[in-house]
Write a structure and sequence with these properties.
259 residues; alpha/beta; nine-stranded parallel β-sheet; 12 helices; globular
């Protein structure tokens, strides 16, 4: 499902689950996506393992390193996305880095994304001005959405720019730290940040990520934006078991959305 259609049908309470392709095992990707689909998740964010991540905390870094050791690469990932698309209606986002796109050629990368059923990308190290000048036309050609990130330190002008350029959703970083570093509760400063962004009446759908791990946090984010993204906490769940278990994943999702 295209991202705009997803948000038209689900204006609030969306839970986006991030996991790393090829972790814990090379062939885990498709099964995890299928189990998330059965648990009621409508959008997933698949991390493209990379040897030099910029924004990832230690949990996701570890999963990326393990996935690379498992033999994960972009060709395998694209084949796995095709399998996911055959069996689910999930909206599929991929998150990675500009070097990964450039290693195969940006247009070829986007064409492949479109062909296998990827709806959007999150590329944290892609500058907005470079995207606008060099890549926006190609993204539009292949109907691949992009989501830019804002943080508590992002100025008003750049927030407005990120909002105008994001064709998928606006990724609202909950904290100034790397992923997975929050305590499980929001500070007063974070709530003030959420209120400030809400008061700006931005045009893009918004999901809050980085450090989201509890049902209470999920509930609070839904008071301000369309939902949230959980990554590190889900990776920890996958790390806690020797095999990917459908009931374990279903229980985790229910614990977040139903509290």
């Amino acid at each position: 499902m295209k991202i705009n259609k997803l948000f038209e049908c689900n204006k609030n309470g969306l839970l986006n689950i991030f996991f790393t392709a090829g972790y814990p095992k090379l062939d885990s990707t498709v099964r995890i996506a299928q189990y998330l689909d059965r648990a009621g998740v409508k959008i997933i964010e698949i991390g493209m393992p990379f040897s030099d991540p910029l924004a990832d905390g230690t949990t996701i870094q570890h999963s990326s390193e393990a996935a690379l050791k498992n033999g994960m690469n972009l060709d395998i990932l694209f084949d796995q996305v095709k399998e996911i698309r055959k069996t689910t209606e999930l909206t599929i986002i991929m998150m990675g880095y500009l070097n990964q796109m450039m290693s195969v050629g940006v247009e070829e990368f986007l064409e492949t994304c479109s062909r296998v059923g990827v709806s959007g990308l999150i590329i944290p190290d892609l500058p907005m001005d470079i995207y606008e000048k060099e890549y926006q036309t190609i993204f539009r050609k292949y109907e691949i959405d992009i989501s830019f990130l804002i943080t508590p330190r992002t100025g008003v002008e750049r927030i407005r720019l990120a909002d105008s350029l994001s064709s998928g959703f606006l990724y609202m970083v909950a904290d100034n730290s790397i992923t997975g570093g929050a305590s499980g509760e929001f500070s007063e400063e974070q709530i003030e940040y959420f209120e400030r962004i809400k008061s700006m009446n931005l045009t893009s759908p918004i999901l809050i990520g980085f450090g989201i791990k509890t049902a209470n946090q999920f509930r609070i984010t839904c008071e301000y934006v369309n939902g949230s993204i959980i990554g590190s906490e889900f990776i920890r769940l996958l790390s806690s078991t020797e095999r990917v278990d459908q009931n374990l994943i279903s229980d985790f999702i229910n614990s977040i959305v139903k509290g």
